[in-house]
UniProtKB/TrEMBL annotation, chain B:
Residue ranges of domain Glycosyltransferase subfamily 4-like N-terminal in the record: 16-219
Cited Pfam families: Glyco_trans_1_4, Glyco_transf_4
Matches recorded under Gene3D superfamilies: Glycogen Phosphorylase B
Highest taxon listed in the record's lineage: Bacteria
Protein known as: Glycosyltransferase family 4 protein
InterPro entries: Glyco_trans_4-like_N (IPR028098)
Organism: Craurococcus roseus
Length: 730, 430
């Protein structure tokens, strides 16, 4: 027995014949079984084997006590095998009774790993001293880990000696033995070990590599500053490049801070230049012009291939985190038209780009949650040669990555198969990641007073376009029926405008005097989040979600909506009501929302009698409708909350309104159109400002998502509204 | 009775018809009817510098007249963006006046925001608006005159878009909705002519709040001799123009008519009285060329109200050749006061004030040859002048106008229950 510290003892039981199985051995003292946690391990020596037991110090394990050993026999009663009387030794070597380095190393590994693991005694100075002393005795003075580069503010990259056995590339568990405590070295791959620089300051720290090999000294960093990891990556010697790649792989497998550092290194280091194969005189060509990690371990790729002669036999893909190449079957690629390439290669000597040179693919499991970094594609040729395509680094932020995926294929070349097979799954994951990064909104109260118990809250998301704000606010403020009953909540979804908007609203409040709450989103999170944040800031029992480009045609518009909502809500039934909305020329923009099957069988949202005269007789009657537009939608707060608010799965803002209506109906609700409330809606005035929406597949993505969720429900619903006109050719 | 009158300019700085009438009315109400309060005129960099630390400044020596500096105005939207200035300066001033009646003579410079601020600062006051022109229903300078110079039969959204081809359609809707909204809080909208009332009615403003309120003039100076002797040859061929020289008042049309008369040998004399301030160089060039081409015409430059009698004594006819509808030009009332028959355009507010063949003659608007024919007839038939001059009825005086206003104010105040202004919720149908 060795007392490693005040609290930990190590016992050795000679078992030359190997009768005791460390997995089944049961030890107990005179007063009963020994108290966990403890751990057994067999160490072979030239003379046989010693069974080691590490445990917390306790009476049955004290010097002089008698230990009974039994073997746990498959469900049978334990049979006593031996008894031993415990005697004190003053070191691990003495306990083992050998100086064989292999045996001592095995004991050292056992003790240090249990101290860091089961026993949780990393900071046990006595235990650490024992381990350190033993490791120092085992050191080969010629072998040492050299500090080679700085990584970030705190880390230093050490290179392990290259004479040992080949180290694993993924997550080797190296241990650091300091004179007074133990550490893990979690950031490691191959020969790279990244450690906080302070370990170098602890003189004599020894690294115990995970895979074979004896302990190595950590050489302290030289007085001159080390090069940065980025500098290392720019060197051309194979060893430096390999070490650099190992270091990046180590960071990629690390914690959030390590991955953040990796992202920063990639952004600052600039990475490898993207490489394409684009010369027209070449017999084949291609590029991997977009590779975007999807935040959940997958990757979205977009590129093109020109292979008029059939030279490309196969593809393999390599990710930034290493982990080897994976084959990418040609028929897994979704192909699409790229008229730009067709033009470029129209006169290429060996043949053009073909009809659909573009490709896109989403690989849901491409290894690791790595952010940023470069992906590359090898084209295997029929000749046995390879061509190497390198993608530019992908966007570092999930929202930018999502928008890149949505812009990857021109909307007119987007097929349902492309959407379903690669755009939608990648977008869904990235959107989720972007939404998960949402910060908390800020609430600014402007003015006091107002109704003590407002009947309704007007919740107005603002995004960039402020053209109507002055008019809309003043129109609300001048309407006595609103001032007496409603509270007003503006939600700014473009926080870069915060100063302007707050200044404008405070000025308007100074002349009009209607109090309001301004909720400022932490970043542009889209319409749904804005509505939800506004609803959370409101107190009234009814919510009216109002677009910022909706302006009343006359005062008193809220009352008929509230009246109809009350009527529909009898008995606690969930309900929603929408008004008549007008285009700027006075024709109908909205008289209720219905669904119609559009091209490709997807359900599209449409409005009744769009463009018809304002007083078109059928649009003059209040009536149930399949849904109402979110441009102005009234519902009770309890119903809104029961539904979980506006669904944030849609990108930027579209289809959330019909989604809300469909969820309301699924919960047994009813929805009505109320023409006594008339407002103008200058449609699409704000979404037009959103670059990520106007020219990308966001709209098609939302429709796809909406269709995938609701197609059967819509079909059943529309069967109940056979009068809905159709404007789309099915 | 406490009154607050608001005017887009002060007549001492810009003596336009509306400004003169507004201040004259305010003083008449004060001096003859015991009303007290403030005449507050807007002013811009065109006439005054803004003073540090305040929007307010004095004008002349009057204790109850002030200026409020309101630049940066949006003339299209009739919107005053300086909401902070309005709230900090105008609101406390209005609250200290504590008016029973707030009377806007124009929304220019003040904007919808000033109405909002004043309504809050004087919540019990009755609101009166005089539409001296068509600004609330016409974004094209409130003249119902198209950008290419044609009379607009509107207002209509499509006509508005033709005047502002680059302007987004929703801007017209926003402007229109806001004007209706703001004016729906006014207890009366006063129109100085039936023509103007008709335009506001056609635009959908509610008839019960649109009231006819004809203009009047101060009659304190001596009138010109009613029976000015004819020239020795018996002709009544001296024509006078009184008004600003700009493209709307029709000075150019009149000069061209004079040129036509000279060319065909019709002897006459044309005198144009009026300044050319703020006119673009291109216009002045054309004006001077037209003057050059009309040998029987002279331009005499600006005049003051005190000069008017003397100047009118020198002419037989007063010509009002405006190329837009006009509303109720004071110069017609002045001409009648001095016994001069008026030759004016045959449409709009001016045609309503001049009875063709009774106290004046109508000529086709914007048509130099047509106007020349009417002038020739007038010059060559002295008996026509005699008949028309004797058909002139005395014009309404500012004193009468003030009495009309005082009874209107009283009626509005009698209706109001203190502390509960009936919100004008009957929305204006757009």
């Amino acid at each position: 027995m060795v007392s490693l510290s005040d609290g930990i003892v190590l016992l050795g039981v000679e078992d030359p014949a190997g009768r005791l199985d460390p997995a089944r051995v049961v030890a107990s003292g005179e007063t009963g079984p020994i108290r966990p946690p403890f751990s057994w391990h067999r160490v072979r020596t030239r003379g046989g084997a010693v069974l080691l037991l590490i445990a917390h110090a306790q009476a049955p394990l004290a010097a002089g006590a008698v230990l009974r050993l039994a073997q746990d026999g498959d469900g049978e009663s334990t049979t006593p095998a031996a008894t031993a009387s415990i005697a004190a030794r003053d070191g691990i070597a003495a306990l083992l009774g050998t100086t064989e380095p292999a045996a001592l190393l095995a004991a050292l590994r056992f003790v240090s790993s249990k101290a860091l693991g089961t026993l949780r005694r990393a900071d046990d100075a006595g235990l650490a001293r024992h381990c350190h002393r033993l490791a120092a005795a085992l050191l080969d003075p010629a072998r040492a880990a050299r500090p080679v580069a700085r990584a970030g503010e705190e880390l230093v990259l050490w290179s392990l000696p290259d004479d040992g056995p080949p180290a694993r590339r993924t997550a080797p568990q190296h241990t650091l033995l300091g004179p007074a405590r133990l550490h893990r070295a979690p950031l490691a791959a191959g020969r790279a070990v990244l450690l906080p620089a302070r370990h170098a300051a602890t003189a004599g720290t020894i690294l115990l590599p995970a895979d074979g090999g004896g302990p190595v000294r950590l050489l302290p960093p030289p007085p001159a500053p080390l090069p940065s990891l980025t500098d290392l990556g720019r060197r051309t010697e194979p060893q430096a490049r390999a070490l650099h790649a190992d270091a990046l792989a180590a960071l990629a497998a690390g914690d959030d801070a390590a991955r953040r550092l990796l992202r920063d290194l990639r952004l600052v280091g600039g990475g490898e230049p993207a490489r394409a194969c684009a010369a027209p005189e070449h017999p084949f060509g291609g590029a991997l012009d977009m590779a975007v990690a999807d935040g959940e371990g997958g990757v979205f790729l977009r590129g093109w291939l020109r292979d008029p002669l059939g030279l490309v036999a196969g593809l393999t893909l390599r990710g930034p985190a290493g982990g080897g190449d994976r084959p990418l079957p040609l028929d897994a690629l979704h192909r699409f038209a790229r008229p730009d390439l067709t033009d470029t290669y129209a006169d290429a000597p060996h043949g053009g780009a073909g009809r659909e040179p573009g490709f896109a693919v989403h690989l849901p499991d491409a290894g690791g949650p790595c952010t940023g970094g470069q992906w590359s594609l090898r084209l295997r040729l029929t000749t046995g040669d390879t061509a190497h395509l390198v993608a530019p680094p992908g966007p570092a932020q999930p929202r930018a990555a999502r928008d890149a995926v949505l812009a990857a294929v021109a909307p007119k070349h987007l097929t349902q198969a492309l959407m379903r097979g690669c755009i939608a799954p990648a977008t869904g994951r990235l959107h989720r990641a972007a939404m998960a990064l949402r910060g908390a909104p800020e609430e600014v109260r402007i003015g006091g007073g107002g109704p003590a118990r407002p009947q309704a809250a007007l919740v107005v998301p603002l995004y960039r376009n402020l053209r109507f704000l002055r008019h809309q606010y003043a129109a609300f403020a001048r309407d006595p029926s609103l001032r007496e009953t409603a509270e007003l909540v503006y939600v700014l979804d473009s926080p870069e405008q915060r100063e302007d908007v707050e200044h404008m609203l405070r000025g308007l409040h100074a002349v009009c005097g209607m109090p309001l709450t301004l909720v400022v989103q932490a970043a542009n999170h889209g319409y749904a989040s804005a509505c939800n944040a506004g609803a959370a800031a409101a107190t009234a029992p009814v919510l009216a979600l109002v677009n910022s480009d909706v302006v009343p045609a006359a005062r008193g518009w809220l009352r008929p909506l509230l009246r109809e909502l009350d009527r529909l809500s009898t008995g606690g039934r969930p309900a929603a009501v929408g008004p008549k909305l007008l285009f700027d020329d006075g024709s109908l923009q909205h008289a209720g929302l219905f669904f119609e099957a559009g091209p490709g069988g997807e359900w599209y949202n449409n409005h009744y009698w769009k463009g018809y005269p304002r007083f078109h007789p059928p649009a003059q009657a209040a009536r149930p409708v399949p849904g109402v537009t979110g441009a102005l939608l009234c519902l009770r707060r309890d119903a809104f909350e029961a539904l979980g608010g506006v669904c944030t799965d849609y990108v930027v803002g579209d289809y959330e309104d019909s989604d809300l209506c469909l969820r309301l109906r699924a919960a047994g609700g009813e929805i009505a159109y109320m023409p006594e409330a008339e407002l103008y809606h200058f449609e699409r005035q704000s979404i037009r400002e959103h670059g990520g929406y106007a020219r990308t597949a966001a709209c098609a993505y939302n429709r796809h998502l909406h269709h995938a969720r609701w197609a059967p429900a819509i079909e059943a619903l529309m069967a109940r509204f056979p009068d809905a006109p159709s404007t789309l050719a099915a | 009775m406490r009154i607050l009158h608001l005017c887009h300019n002060h007549p001492d700085l810009q003596p336009g018809g509306s400004e003169v009438l507004a201040r004259g009315l305010f003083r008449e109400l004060r001096d003859r009817h015991g009303a007290e309060g403030l005449f507050l005129a807007a002013v811009t960099a065109a006439h005054r510098q803004r003073r540090p630390g305040t929007l307010l400044q004095a004008v002349g020596g009057a204790a109850d007249e002030m200026l409020v500096w309101l630049g940066h105005f949006d003339r299209f939207a009739l919107s005053q963006p300086d909401t902070y200035g309005l709230a900090a300066t105008l609101a406390p001033l209005v609250a200290s006046v504590d008016p029973d009646i707030v009377h806007f003579h124009h929304l220019l410079q003040f904007g919808a925001e000033a109405v909002d601020a004043i309504r809050r600062a004087a919540p019990r006051a009755r609101l009166v608006f005089t539409a001296h022109d068509f600004f609330p229903i016409c974004p094209q300078e409130g003249q119902l005159l198209t950008t290419d110079g044609r009379l607009c039969r509107g207002p209509s959204p499509d006509a508005c878009r033709r005047c502002f081809p680059g302007k987004p359609a929703e801007d017209f809707v926003m402007r229109d909705l806001q004007m209706r909204d703001v004016l729906s809080d006014f207890d009366r909208i006063l129109l100085p002519s039936e023509f103007a009332r008709g335009r506001y009615l056609a635009a959908g403003y509610p008839a019960e709040r649109l009231a006819l309120m004809p203009n009047g003039i101060a009659c304190d100076g001596p009138a010109a001799p009613r029976r000015r002797p004819a020239a020795p040859d018996g002709r009544r061929d001296r024509f006078g123009f009184f008004g600003h020289i700009n493209r709307f008042k029709g000075g150019m049309v009149l000069l061209e008519a004079s040129r036509i008369l000279s060319e065909d040998g019709t002897a006459h004399r044309l005198t144009l009285h009026g300044g050319t301030a703020y006119q673009p160089d291109a216009f002045l060039e054309r004006f001077n060329a037209a003057l050059e081409a009309a040998p029987m015409a002279r331009h005499h430059g600006p005049y003051t109200g005190a000069d008017l009698g003397g100047l009118m004594a020198e002419v037989d006819w007063v010509v009002v050749p405006s190329v837009w509808w006009e509303n109720a030009p004071l110069v017609i009332l002045e001409a009648f006061r001095h016994g001069r028959p008026v030759i004016c355009g045959n449409a709009g507010g001016m045609a309503e004030m001049v009875r063709d063949g009774m106290d004046g003659l109508h000529a086709p608007i914007g048509d130099p040859a047509g106007l020349a024919a009417v002038l020739r007839r007038a010059a060559e038939r002295p008996e026509l002048w005699d008949r028309l001059a004797s058909g002139i009825l005395p014009p309404k005086t500012i004193a009468q106008v003030a009495e009309d206003h005082i009874s209107l104010y009283q009626e509005l105040l009698d209706r109001s229950v203190p502390g509960s202004r009936a919100p004008a919720e009957a929305a204006v149908a757009a």
